Each structure stands twice: as structure tokens, then as C-alpha cells.
Amino acid sequence: MFWDFLRDFEAGDFSSWIREGNFIAEPFSTFYTLLGFHSIGMAAVVGIGWMLSARIFGFHQEFLISKTQRLLQLAWWGFYLNLGSGVLLLLGQPRRELMTGLFWVKMLSIVMALITMVVVQKGLGHLKMVPNGNGKIEAVPLSLRVNAFLVCIFWLIAIVAGRLIGYTQPPPPM
Amino acid sequence: MNWDPNLVAEHFKNLWPGPLVRQSGWLFSFGEAMHFIGLCLLLGSMFIIDLRLMGWFKSVSVRAALSFLPYAIIGFIINLASGWMFFTSAPASYLENNAFLLKMLLIVIAGVNALGFTLWEQPKVIAIGPEQDTPQSAKIFAGLSLFLWLFILLLGRWLPIFTVGTN
Q: Does some domain include residue B167?
């Protein structure tokens, strides 16, 4: 019944517009324009996540991570852009996406990445300054470094799985 | 002397690793994954550097923001290598693609912008500390940089729209 609903939805104007229509004007197809926004969101959330993780691992110690809340906000906005564009892309061909194994791998890794990002964000609010030579640096606990590493890994899996979805998708269902 | 575009494409088609990519069932997709990793490194660091130079995230010094530059360089190198893989696998299809040509032009402009910043602006702003604003010229360099790289990313995703044909 749900599958029949999706089939009927795909045959409708909105889904067809996402899949085959144009965004504002030719030749900018809706599908590839959404992919473009999806990529920008990915660059923001993953790129900033990786940069902050590098800091948490101990590099760039002049960069005070306790003062990076606005940067994290930008990363979250990147994720919201991904969420919005991702949902629209899914609505373009839901049956085909849901039938693709790597799609589920990507979704699972995104969920795990988000959970660990929230854990990291909470951990950043409790950093202590400790003496170090001439001044003070932020003491980053091992648990925060482990979570930052997991953020990197989960986003890496999401990127690779997302890129390979196109190669493993079944043909469009009848 | 007349340049035959088909001969140019044929020349690039035989360069390494073009033949290898065409024969392989997985190299192109591997290259695509690497291209995405590269762009995340590049743009992730550009967001920090350019937004600080534009006057955002003033809680950190300019020097601290610029310390992320190596990731942009690594990301660019990864993208250059993977991009070369794509190009040599089917050069004619890329040379006929207006989005690809515009993307390459914008990458050159972004490079010139980065060089200009390094030579003229970086010595002026490197000592700017936390809570201090950057000069207008630095904001222009940074704003242009961020705009160019985001548009370059978009053009990359739009390549399939502008694909004319393949060889």
C-alpha cells in the first residue's frame, strides 16, 4: 500500500518536476540544482566538522574552540540545507532511493554523525583552560577527541556512500 | 597554425591515467569520492579563513584562522589529481562542456585572487588579533574567494546538464 502510494506520488507533478523539470529556467534542471545545494551543505557541515575535529585533536591551538559556537551554527545550517535538499531529492524518486542499500548506509552514518556532533558540541562548552608554558591552552579530554574522530569517520562514510549511490541504484521501478 | 580540437582531445585521452580509468570498473567512482573529500577539505577551511577575513568569528585571530590553510591546499591537490583522472578519461566531453570551461576559468581566477591576497593583503592582516576587524580590502579578497569556490562547486554539479556529447 505504501509502495503504491509512492508510485502514485512519483507520477504526480511535484515529483516529476524534481526529477525531470527545470529550476526557474532551462537548462538548470531541478534535480542537478538541488544536488548543487546538497553539495554546498555537505561542504559546510562536513568541512567545518573536519576542521573543528583537527583542532580538537590538538592542532591549531591558537584557535580557541570554546569560542566557535557561531562556526558550529554555520555547520548546522549546512546540515539543514542538506536536509532540505535531500528530502526534495528523495521525493523525486523515493522508491528507487529506498531500494538502494547504500542510501540506508548513508542515512545511518548521518544519524551517527549528528549524534556525535551534538556530543562534541556539548563537550566544547565545558573545556577548561590549563597552564602551558607562556600561557594557557584549552584542555581537551580524550572522550572529546574520540567523539571528534567518530564525527570525521561517520561523515566520511556518508560522503562515500552518497557518491556511490548513483552506481548501485536499481533501474527506475515500473 | 590550425588547432584541431579532436586532436587535442585525442592527445589528452592517451595521457595517464585516462586509459586506466576507462578500462577500470571502479577508478572513476573512487575518483569521485576523493573529489568530494577534497572539496570538503577545501571549502571547510575556506569557510573559516574567508569568513574570519570578512569580519565574522572575530573571537579568533586572523593568524589562527589562516592556520587552516594547509587543508585547503591538500583539498585542492586531491581535487586536481581526481579532476585530472576524470578529464583524461573523456577529454572531448569536458572540452565541449561550457560549465566545465567556466569552472576551469573560475578556478584560475580563484588562484589569482589567492595569490593577490598572499602577496598584498596577508602581511597587513596577519597581526590582527581577536575582536579586531579586518580592512575592507581583505573583506573583498575573502568575499570573492568564498563566492568563487561555492560557484565552482555548483558548476561541478551542473556538468551533466551541459554535457554535449562524448567521444
A: no
